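Q: Sequence in, structure out?
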Amino acid sequence: MQDHPKPSRPRGVPRTLPVPQTTLSYNLEVSARRYPTKTALSYYGASLSYSELHRQVEALAGYLQQYCHVQPGERVLLYMQNSPQFVIACYAVLRADAVVVPVNPMNLTEELAHYVQDAETRVALVAQELLARIAPLLGDETLQQLIVANYGEYADLASDLAQADFLRLPPLSDPPTGVLHWRNALAAQCAPGAQTASSVDVCAMPYTSGTTGKPKGCMHTHATLMANVAQTSVWRRWSAQDVMLAVVPFFHITGMVAVMHSAIYLGGEMVIMTRWDREAALKLIARHQVTGWTNIPTMVIDLFASPHFKSDSLESLRIVVGGGVPMPEAVAKRLFDLTGVEYAEGYGLTETASSTHSNPADRPKRQCLGIPVCNTESLVIDPDTLAPLGVGEVGEIVSRGPQVFKGYWNNPAATAEAFINIGGENYFRTGDLGRYDEDGYFFFVDRLKRMINASGFKVSPNEVESMMYAHPDIQDVCVIGSHDPYRGETVKAVVVLKAASRDKLAAQDIVEWCKSRMAAYKYPHIVEFVDSLPKSGTGKVMWRQLQDEERARA
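A: Exactly. Output:
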């Protein structure tokens, strides 16, 4: 095996780190006892203390157990945008010894059906503005109960920050059978039973866009998530004094672990944004003296473009981290010139509970994945021979560590394919091609597996194709990634129409059809009509040829 360089840790950060063997819900109990009056959540002019947050989590957990009859290990769907209710719902499910299934709030009814059926979710916690999408699934053989939350109930509607439409929905009236009011669930004041879950029990099942077929549920235990919470907290030197701008989505593994769970673990404050709004972000950073911001580069770019941005707008920031797409060199330099803070990029996947790599804040390299975090080892291997490679050689990145998931839900074949044994140790195969330099820093090169990364959201071309084949006029389709200066990549569909439909449809007709059935990040934003798709001798579409041609044009 090749000898890898041993990069230096950030100053004061050890190579190995003991991970607490407790549950995530216990973290909230500890912080509520330590800091009962301290602000846990700030939300558009209103706030929630740690003691009140803990009280509401206990009440909702008791309701889930006593009224919804949620059992230990049962999967509960969480379908909301960032909000205090998301945090409360997530921790209530954990406190009830159940499993959180976070779902992208951009998903539409047809997409939601897969999560409901695959995870066998009987109960869902839903935001009011999303109710119309999931309501058609209520009452089938699986989904039986919805608890519906209204974001505005946790905001100060008199605040100049609380002008968004999603905060001003009228209260839900005359809910149908099976739909329950969030406030009524809390008002029942149910006390949950003693917690029986341990660190080895599955507690969360975020779905990942697989390279084939439908998204797959990644089984994470309290221990796998706790490992990354501990790693992130030590690596970034977070503390109870930090104030985090919580704008990356909580349903996504990064927002869930690196922001939400980490803040609760430390007793820090989260300043929650339901949707990105650069003007609101500027006000929130200044008013709350935000010290930490996890983001995607497009947010920084947008913030700099605000007419209200000033040279001292970000002076409270101590650390700015992100990933998903590379941070442009010029933007990173401007951030540093204004704040003295280096933008620290990281790398990870849903299967690895967020990060396996991160740049040290005191010596980052730009447009770089970083170095393996505490307790983590990564190699670059030849994807064909599986032999480890040396400095500068390009191959598949594989990683092992306590944050790696326990497998795909009800899919042992996919689980087996995801791991490889090297030197007696099991490594997770990321499907990403990369290299490492003489200092041990890793760099992304390309994807070995078929995947599109649109503003940090992973899109499976196979999934999009399978949905597009339902269009009555489409004969053949291949989905690829197309360069986008803002999103990094956007989804493009190369389409062969049926003979009778040619010259009768415009590309935008296909786009609109897809838009009505797929999440905003997922539907093809570009459609190109062709007479035929390139195929191999066995009849398989040669997607890589089309992808390479698209990149060459870009």
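The longest helix spans residues 50-66.
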